[in-house]
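Exam revision sheet. Question 4 asks you to relate a sequence to its structure. Input first:
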Amino acid sequence: MSPCLDSPLRISSPLTASALRDLTCGKRVLLSGPVLLAREAALRRMAQEIERGKALPFTPEGAVLFHGGFTPPPPGRKIGSIGPTTSLRMDPWTCPLLRAGVKGMIGKGKRSPKIVVAIRECGAVYFGATGGAAAFLSRSVRSVYPLLFGDLGSEEPYLLEVFELPLVVAIDAEGNDLFEQGQKKFIKGTNQKQNNGW
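Answer key, structure tokens:
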């Protein structure tokens, strides 16, 4: 049976070594616990703080970063729509954060070969979140707390408490890449159709 047809695995952050072993490529998960929402400006600042030997405004060990943003909350809600952004843009500042102990990242789209190697070497995972479903994803958010770096304006990082946020393991700790696997499967299927005269 395809792992995408299995029941989703319920996991919590911070991610532990035992949890990471179960997060195989293509596995659907429901994540609960603290998640740090941050984009380019915040990640750049964090990477700089690490290089300077300064403490981060969150505990990096086992932490999960969500590459994305959100809209202002409507009346009676904790947060507006929340959606993933293209994680490839975050690659320049990813390695220092992984070396500091971050074990999970959430975003959309594939990562560069360098980051796939870093994910494997650091024993981390990259989760894919569904793009275009920001209103649906926001239902998983239970609380929102601003962190430091308030001078970053709309790119200020926030700590979210989420409950059963739906994700898929796009790159696992062994470096298995769902995007590469999907591309190879598509090419194989296309070649088979051509060979069959379709």
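Marking note for examiners. The chain has one domain: 3-195.
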